[in-house]
Write a structure and sequence with these properties.
mainly alpha, 1 helix, rod-shaped
């Protein structure tokens, strides 16, 4: 049988071992927690970077779309202006031709009147 001293020493030794294990577990837990927090922070930072890149790409696409629409609108306006210019030119030509025809008719009328009077 063990003596009281040996029993006390065994109990003290076990307490010391338990305390040591408890401290080791606590330090491992703290390390894991710190690593987990660090991983979470890295993932969050990566997510923010990805969102920023996506936002930037979306802004670029939106700007390209606006520029494209602006160019299309300008092309439509230019085409409209060209059509209007051509229409105006044709109307001027029509007016000139009509004026020439009227002038010729008036001249012919005068000639006929002279022939009628001259006979």
């Amino acid at each position: 049988m063990k003596s009281f001293e040996q029993l006390s020493e065994d109990i003290e030794q076990r307490r010391a071992e338990l305390k040591q294990r408890s401290q080791e577990r606590m330090s491992k837990f703290k390390e894991k927690s710190a690593a987990g927090l660090e991983d979470a922070a890295q993932k969050a930072a990566a997510g923010r970077e990805m969102m920023a890149a996506n936002d930037e790409a979306a802004a670029e696409r939106a700007q390209e779309y606006k520029e494209k629409r602006k160019a299309q609108e300008k092309a439509r306006e230019d085409a409209r202006a060209e059509r209007d210019k051509e229409k105006e030119r044709r109307e001027e030509m029509k007016a000139e031709i009509k004026a020439e025809i009227e002038k010729e008719r008036a001249e012919k009328k005068k000639e006929r009147e002279k022939e009628i009077k001259g006979d």
